[in-house]
Design a protein that fits this description.
heterodimer, A: about 240 residues, alpha/beta, four-stranded antiparallel β-sheet, 9 helices, 10 strands, about 25% strand, B: about 350 residues, mainly alpha, 4 strands, about 5% strand, globular, disordered C terminus
């Protein structure tokens, strides 16, 4: 397994959010995580990245215990993270944002960016524009592209379709499906867009009250009863 | 104007001032401009670490004063100013690196960094202020306590202490140093290192998540800022052949912040213009003796914070760059290459 999480607990100050999450993700797998708001989806990704400290449990990445490592150290091991809200560098140009993502790439910077831009043609004509001047969808594409510039083995995606126009969502799906076909990367995806998560995930984990309570297939998210019970939204 | 064109224009303007002012100003005017330059070097150091590195230091004058005292002590002992000038940069750089190490690797938050740097300045003020008497001498140099250190030998031709620089030559040295510091900072900001520094200012957590050790970058920025402030202190000490603990005072610490805020945070030209403008105003008020200079400085600070929070340079630049297509038309002359 590329990623193994055992009884992971964390939270914000005295408020516990994750109450013993356990999951395993194989190399090349795309795993979706669904749940009501406030169930701990984003907290799980933040804890996996080390942005929030784990209060108990273990995170093992490529057979190495990374539970106590800093976010910087985890990124250097090959974990990429695209947080909710994108968090691009608004004062830097698109090109400079991409160059920022190249630190961890073992390849030539120019070639790395060219390869990534081949996957994100929309960004090529925006290279000189500041990140802050992009639309929300373009910023999301940039955040994804910048993450890929580092050549991560595992990518954690936190609601990449939030507030994004449908045409760009389709673009993101195509890009991620191409990565999936090429077996280039492993992805853990937190999402509330059911169509998006069903199109990309090989299996879906349901998170409730800070713990994984059920595993289901992408097809099952079409079942209104299941969605109403575990996710709290219409399919 | 592109980054490269603005860089060339700025250096050309600096060189024009370097060679042009001695033809226009009398000796008094040139001496005044020399101290303005020393303060502009200090302002550049503050503008660099605050405007680009995002490190809010309330105590940049600590490094300025340390540079001045280091120069004074060293030149009084050595005679030749060549090594003392280098030491006036090196000692504050190392002190800033040491202080920065504890602040950044200790994960001190931004607000407390302001408090710590201010406290260090106050401590230095009190320590140096208490060094009156024969006991407090370093070799031939008496620190002089609150009376300061008078008769500090001026800069000399490198390696030749028998050839001290006259006021006009001192102007060339000071203005040349300002241009060099500006060029150095532009080069740093245009490099990969500079890009990372600006990215850390924009979003430190994100930079960490991309694998950058933000503590190290901030430490290096802080140390560079300390060294530049030290150079400013050396130029200041040379200007009056004198240095006293007032350089560590709270008024001096606040003044440098006003230079940067008025001129424009996030630019290099802004702090320089801010230092020249404010210093000119202070000297003008000093000769009029009509109003208290600190009162005027306070009023300027309030007016700028409320009405022109970006400072003069970004506002003027914005007027020239306005394009009809709005945000879609904006292109990146990113912060790393702004003048």
């Amino acid at each position: 397994m590329m990623l193994q999480v055992e009884a992971l607990r964390s939270g914000y100050g005295r408020i516990p959010i994750l109450a013993g999450v356990s999951l395993a993700v194989a190399k090349g797998e795309f795993v979706g995580i669904l749940g009501h708001n406030g169930m701990g989806k984003s907290t799980l990704l933040r804890t996996l990245m080390g942005y929030l400290p784990a209060t108990a449990g273990r995170v093992v990445f490529e057979e190495r215990d990374i539970t106590r490592l800093s976010p910087t150290a985890r990124a250097r091991l090959g974990i990429g993270y695209v947080p909710q809200g994108r968090e691009i560098f608004p004062a830097l140009s698109v090109h400079e944002n991409l160059r920022m993502g190249c630190l961890l790439s073992s390849r030539d910077e120019r070639r790395t960016i060219e390869d990534v831009l081949a996957k994100f043609p929309r960004l090529r004509r925006l290279l000189d524009r500041t990140g802050g001047a992009l639309s929300g969808g373009e910023q999301q594409l940039l955040a994804l592209a910048r993450c890929l510039c580092g050549g991560p083995q595992l990518m954690l995606l936190d609601e990449p379709t939030e507030g994004i126009q449908p045409s760009i969502i389709d673009e993101i799906v195509e890009i991620l499906q191409a990565l999936q076909r090429g077996n280039e990367i492993t992805v853990v995806l937190v999402e509330q867009n059911l169509k998006f998560i069903a199109e990309l995930s090989q299996r879906i984990l349901i998170i409730q009250k800070g713990a994984i309570t059920r595993e289901t297939s992408p097809e099952a998210v079409q079942d209104p009863a299941l969605i109403a019970e575990f996710v709290g939204m219409a399919a | 104007m592109t980054g490269w064109a603005s860089f060339v224009a700025m250096v050309a303007a600096g060189l024009a001032l370097l060679f042009g002012l001695p033809m226009v100003f009398d000796l008094f005017g040139l001496l005044q401009m020399t101290v303005f330059v020393a303060m502009a070097v200090l302002a550049l150091s503050q503008g660099f670490i605050w405007g680009y590195g995002g490190v809010m230091s309330f105590g940049q004058t600590a490094f300025f004063g340390l540079g001045g005292y280091t120069y004074a002590v060293a030149v009084l002992n050595m005679g030749d100013s060549t090594v003392p000038v280098l030491l006036s940069v090196l000692v504050p750089t190392l002190f800033a690196a040491l202080l920065g190490y504890f602040m950044f690797y200790g994960r001190i938050s931004d607000a407390y960094i302001g408090v710590i740097t201010l406290t260090v300045t106050v401590i230095l003020f009190n320590v140096v202020n208490s060094t009156a008497g024969d006991f407090y001498t370093i070799g031939n140099a008496a620190l002089g306590g609150f009376n300061g250190m008078p008769s500090v030998p001026p800069l000399n031709v490198p390696g030749d202490p028998s050839s001290p620089l006259d006021p006009e030559q001192t102007w060339y040295a000071a203005m040349g140093a300002l241009i060099l510091v500006y060029v150095l900072l532009r080069m740093i900001l245009a490099s990969r290192f500079g890009r990372v520094v600006v990215a850390i200012r924009e979003n430190e957590t994100r930079a960490q998540l991309l694998g950058y050790d933000t503590r190290l970058y901030k430490l290096v920025v802080f140390a560079i800022g300390g060294g530049i402030a030290g150079l400013g202190g050396c130029l200041y000490t040379n200007w009056g052949s004198f240095i006293s603990p007032t350089v560590f005072g709270l008024a001096a610490s606040a003044q440098v912040l006003i230079y940067v805020l008025v001129g424009g945070l996030g630019t290099l030209l802004g702090p320089i213009l801010g230092a020249f403008g404010i210093q000119y105003l202070i000297s003008l008020i000093g000769t009029q003796e009509a109003v208290n200079a600190n009162l005027v400085l306070g009023a300027i600070l309030v007016v700028f914070v409320l009405l022109v929070p970006q400072g003069v340079v970004p506002v003027v630049r914005g007027l020239f760059r306005r394009v009809p297509n709005g945000r879609r038309g904006r292109v990146a002359e990113a912060a790393v290459v702004e003048p």
